[in-house]
Amino acid sequence: MIKIKKDWVGISLFLISLIILSFMVYLIKHPFVMYDEYFTLGLVNTSIFQLISITSSDVHPPLYYIILKFSIKIVSLLQIPLKSIFVSKFVSVIPYFILLIISGTKIREDYDWFTAGIFIFVIGVMSDFFINYMIMRMYSWALLFFVLSFIYLKDVMLKSNKKSWVLLTLFTILGAYTHYFVALSSSIIYFLLLVYILFIKDDEINKDNGGIDIKGKINNIVPKLRENEFKKWIISVIALIILYIPWIPILLQQMINVNDSFWIKPIGVDETINFFIFAITNSYSDNGLAIFCLIIILSLVIFQYKKNKKDENFYIITGICVFLGVIFIGIGFSLISQPIIIDRYLLPSIGVLWLVFAISIGKIDNNKNIIMVLIVILILSIGGVSQAISKDISIYKSTVHDEKIFKTMNREDNTVIYEDGVTLLRYHGYLDKTEEYNFNRDTNRIVLDNHTLHNAIEFKDINSNKLNQLIIENNDKNIYYIGCGKVNDNFEKIDTIKISGKNSDIYIIKNK
Q1: pLDDT at 444
Q2: Fewer CB near the terminus (10 Å): N or C of the chain?
Q3: For 371-401, how does the pLDDT look when each residue is reduced to its tens digit (9 = 90+)?
Q4: Cβ-based neighbours of 267, under 8 Å, separated by 6 or more
């Protein structure tokens, strides 16, 4: 049998990933808008202080929105003739471009082309990665920061120099300000790093101490080295706490808001299984195939385990533990208190899971095993990309439908009433010519601060009594209500904002 040239396979996968990047850019030229993207568009059209204030009433930290806000501002100042919606989506593609560079440089240098090629390819096509590089949300940036922090965790374990600790701390804090599940994942990493420092790290003693090889002296040196490493760990943790202190009061308030009401459904057996399957595919109709492929990959990782060095094995175990730990902690909190976990929150930890898989697979020399891995990856990638394209087409059709509705409604002689502040923020940019009202209905969603909204958007408040009066005084006008179900018998449903298939969430109702 001809020996497979692994580097050529890795380079081929890397080049295919460049094509995937180009395809992403092509698709966002014909932009689709998903449910939460309307919220993002509305938020970045406010001032930076209003943006942070409104975000504090939401359930996510602010860094992604700030990055997006400044990106749009820079394009505007440079007078580059690009639509803001294209710029916003392109900002989400940037992390994949950066990961391409990291794969072709850092990962290739630390491992080889085969590992680099597999990694950048699978995080482009597996799970729900492909679609999330093209939507105006924080998930691709959360993935980028967490993968970078995990990459430099390896440098901390092996080199423990100033650069590695600074970069680990930097990317950890950036991730924590991007998504809370990255903060949770990073907490698991720091805990396991502490375990490594206190109980495992002793392989580099001879090298770091002038070649000392006398057993008695080494035994004296080990505690001192571990003490030095522990001090570095403490300094990094203290730095993270200090850097996160400004946001901690807001985080605590957000946790209270989530405990009072949140939109995530209770976690059952099906949801739990799907969390594990999501590492492979975003289609839960292919559970059997996904589980089979996952078993094959895990078997190869376990098979390779005995051949690895102790440091490498601990690093790989850390990546797997992060993925499992986030799921179990998320499920545990959801069962004890309020549901907080959904599949897309797992994307950063899934990215790290695929990195450690790529590292393990990259060490395989057996031709049959390499071919088996490539077949599994090919099957999953074809399924993943086809599902993503199908989803993209469906969302695009919904976007065309929704924008047609907005265009009909957005006239100065029309009135629009939104069921709550979230709905107002989502659709104000599309209906800014109308007279706008906020009904402030209890929708079991996070309540945005009404005072802040008034500072950001020009609208009026309305309640049931005022609504009846408004109908009487404007009998000759079109009065629309956007919400989940009508609040007045004078209204009838005339259409639905499809927004990525969530037909039950938002309705447009016209005055009879």
Answers
A1: 54
A2: N
A3: 877 887 887 777 667 777 777 777 778 888 8
A4: 331, 334, 335, 339, 341
Tokens encoding 191:
């805990």
Q: What b/e sequence results for 49-69 when a residue is b if at least 16 CB atoms lie within 10 Å of its CB, and e otherwise?
A: ebbbbbbbbbbbbbbbbbbbb
Instruction: Give the pLDDT score at 27.
Output: 87
Residue 331 near residue 341, CB atoms below 8 Å: yes
Task: Note the pTM of the prediction, 2 decimals.
Answer: 0.88
pLDDT of 54 > 90? The answer is: no
- Asked if 201 contacts 308 with a C-beta cutoff of 8 angstroms, the reply is no
How far apart are alpha carbons 375 and 388 in whole angstroms? Answer: 20
Q: Which residues have C-beta within 8 Å of that of residue 13, sequence separation ≥ 6? A: 117, 118, 120, 121
Q: Is the pLDDT of residue 194 over 60?
A: yes
Cα separation values, 217 from 51, 227, 356, Å: 58, 16, 35
- Find out whether 497 and 405 touch, Cβ atoms under 8 Å: yes
Residue owning tokens 């993002």: 40
Rounded to a whole number of angstroms, the CA Rg of the chain reads 26
List the alpha helices (DSSP H) in 103-203: 108-110, 113-125, 129-132, 139-158, 162-176, 180-199
- Hey, which residues does 473 pair with through a beta bridge? none
Sheet architecture: strand order including 491-496 = 460-461, 435-438, 414-418, 478-483, 507-511, 491-496
Rounded distance between C-alpha atoms, residue 410 and residue 398, angstroms: 18
User: Across residues 111-121, what is the average pLDDT?
Assistant: 94
Of the CA atoms within 13 Å of residue 13, those in its CB half-sphere come to: 29
